Amino acid sequence: MSTAQATKNCITLKGSAQIIVEYLNYGINSILFQRGIYPAENFDNTQQYGLTILMSKDPKIKEFLQNVLKQTEEWLAKNMINKISCVITNAHTKEVLECWDFKMQAEMGDGETNDPTKLTSSKDLTRIQNEIRDVMRQISATVSYLPLLDCICTFDVMIHTLQSTEIPTEWNETGAVFIPNAQAVQLRSFSTGLHKLDTVVNYKMSS
Amino acid sequence: MSQFNFVSDLQNALIMDGETRGPAPRWKKKLEASLNGSANTTRSVLSVSYNTSFSGVQPPTKTPGKSSSDAKKKSATTPSKTPGGGDRFIPNRAATNFDLAHFLVKKEAGENSDEENGQPKNGDNNVNNVQASAHKSERQKLIADAAQVGDSKGSRILCYQNKAPAAPESHTNPLKVVYSIKTPISTKSGTRYIPTTSERILDAPDFVNDYYLNLMDWSADNIVSVALGSCVYLWNAGSGNIEQLTEYEEGDYACSLSWIQDGQILAIGNSTGAVELWDCSKVKRLRVMDGHSARVGSLAWNSFLVSSGSRDGTIIHHDVRSREHKVSSLAGHTQEVCGLKWSTDFKYLASGGNDNLVNVWSLASNGVGTATEPLHKFTEHQAAVRALAWCPWQPNVLASGGGTADRCIKFWNVCNGSLIKSVDSKSQVCALLFSRNYKELISAHGFANNQLTIWKYPSMVKQSDLTGHTSRVLQMAMSPDGSTVISAGADETLRLWNCFAPDPLAAKKVASVNSKAKQSVFRQSIR
Fold first, then answer.
1. What 3 state SS string does B37-68 have?
2. Do residues A154 and A70 make contact, with C-beta atoms less than 8 angstroms apart?
3. Coil, strand or helix: which one is B242?
4. Cβ contact (<8 Å) for A158 and B157?
5. What is the pLDDT averaged over residues B124-146?
6. Which residues touch A147 (CB under 8 Å, ≥6 apart)?
7. ipTM above 0.90, yes or no
8. Does pLDDT of A15 surpass 70?
9. How many structural domains does chain B have?
């Protein structure tokens, strides 16, 4: 009875994971550009969410993100991720300077099924994208208050998964990072109906 | 992130005098080694995480270094004498989650007694145990709520082995220009003499330092209107007379001022969302036009039409002649509209917003107002766009300047929607004006030098830097003869710059250019 409705606009867990991974890809690239971590000439314009977003052209960075996000999507579709952190470190001293947390919260959606693998959400895609757009704008606006990263930096993505997760090949278990004397600023949240995502930036206060 | 440290640190601290545990996991050792490895560090971390991670959202405090370094001192065992500055440490109770802290301490105690369960025990202990387990699930929920993620034991942190490369060694952060103060570069002397100091300085007490407002305009009758606090003043640039036009009641203020092309009519957009029309020769309010649900931060005139841009993201065209003043409403922005300009031939309206967009609207088919869908949507700016200017000699060229995160001046061809040129100005762009006397452009900037910069157009070679303002320059307006520019700064001064005084040798040429421009406007109004 609900088939006509369901086919009209329906986000599955898999689709929700896709939306979030897409956001993470644009978000992390935007952070890399806006925070001046890599040279601006290594970035290209792309149009997404009604914004111009700068994406890295560096093949190594692209490959890294692609590999990480592929795995992320798989885990997200199974709701196995608590949090994803994009950590910016000083390339020489390895000191952690900034940490962008993307906190996931599973939501129940509004489908009629109770099977946790078949949850659906009927939230409009353009509405989700508008919410994402607002977060993306906030990311570029952080430049005005985040401290200058005046050193050669690198970044890493850490995925906080459930204890039961098996470690795939080419992946390592690592420790949590923390920033001494840190400040946290929470940006806007968005939700696909199945995942709610909070973006928080933790940064080191300049002494 | 630091929540985990907090929890594990707390556990370590509490266990230290209890039984000894097995060796710490390798990652933990590594982490400690990388952190100078001293007990002091972990300690200070403990106190800091109290202040930060559990407090949820915490906007950066004004003197951030102090509070947290003081917090560190507090945790030291023997408090030394008060720090030299005499600053007291005032604990921020609101930011500290006592419930959680109390629970964590109690929880440890509960677990310890759990462990003792197997051994012979006395009655008291047993009672404690029952209580501890009874509240266990409740507490688990509490901590999960507070920390957003489960206990550090409940999750794994994974990362990909092949790391992304670091930036090349030669790379320096381009944002450095945003943060570092440089002494102004000795400006290149252009082809003509430009006085680099202001001709005159006027006091502007209470000038609102708000990037999203447009609080000054210069009329064709040589009158400068400026909003200071809740008042609007008129300054006659010819005679120097000052007149107060109006004063708003407590809490309200003018958000934008705009003169009609010719005459003494001033439009004022106010904080209640209304647009007021004032006849300044009689100091009389003619009408109030509502329509916006939030303050009106930008205004632009097109003969009998006044367009207003508001914080609610809409732009409304008001026909000032008719009773039903609202011609149309444009919903092209999702955030505050802070820049609004009609092109010099009145065929296009450009709007810039806090959503980093520049929209260009073409004239409606009936000639009144504009189409309700933007002709072009330029998304290339990475910050709010407030500075907009149309080129007087190329009516289809629009210049736009972005805020702190962007710092670019971009030129657009609105006929085909292409980006002609983009120049990094290395500072927030607050205002842009084209000169009518020269093929030049003047831009107003914020940090670090708070200067006005004159550029040659279209080469965009820097002609001169006009410095003097001690805080960002928020607004610029040009005198009716095009020779003088007035700038309003957040330092509460208005400065007049005689930077476009016509060259007497070129006066003839300029005159002919002017007459041509007038002719084209005339033709336009007949259409």
1. CCHHHHHHHHHHHHHCHHHCCCCCCCCHHHHH
2. no
3. strand
4. yes
5. 52
6. A203, A204, A205, A206, B179
7. no
8. yes
9. 1
Q: Give the domain CATH number at B477.
A: 2.130.10.10
pLDDT per position as a tens digit, A140-198: 888 788 888 888 889 999 999 888 888 888 888 888 888 888 888 999 999 988 889 99
pLDDT of residue B135: 58
Residue B94: how many CB atoms within 10 A of its CB?
8
Whether the predicted pLDDT of A7 surpasses 70: no
Is the alpha carbon torsion for A7, B334, A189, B293 positive or negative?
negative
Q: Check CB contact under 8 Å for A60 and B165.
A: yes
State whether A152 and B167 contact (CB < 8 Å). yes
Q: Which of B348, B510, B338, B337 is nearest to B439 (CA)?
A: B510
Task: Tell me how far CA of residue A29 lies from CA of A42, A65, A92, A135, B166, in angstroms.
Answer: 11, 9, 22, 14, 14
Between residues B380 and B155, the one the model is more confident about: B380
**Number of domains chain A is built from:** 1
Identify the pLDDT of residue B66: 45
Task: For B113-230, list the strands marked E by DSSP.
Answer: 155-160, 200-203, 216-218, 223-228
Tell me if B447 sits within 8 A of B490, measured CB to CB.
Answer: no
To the nearest whole Å, the CA of A109 is away from the closest chain B CA by: 20
CA dist A31 → A37, A141, B87 (Å): 8, 11, 36
Tell me which residue range forms the domain holding A19. 11-204
Q: Which domain holds residue B444?
A: 200-504
| Closest chain B residue by Cα to residue A207 | B65
Cα-based angle B357, B363, B369 (whole degrees, multiple of 5): 90
Answer whether B157 sits within 8 Å of A202, measured CB to CB.
Answer: no
User: Encoding tokens for residue B53?
Assistant: 């991670």
Could you tell me which residues come within 8 angstroms of residue A36 by beta carbon, excluding any fewer than 6 positions away? A149, B173, B174, B175, B176
Selecting from B1, B28, B49 the residue whose C-beta is nearest the C-beta of A85 gives: B1
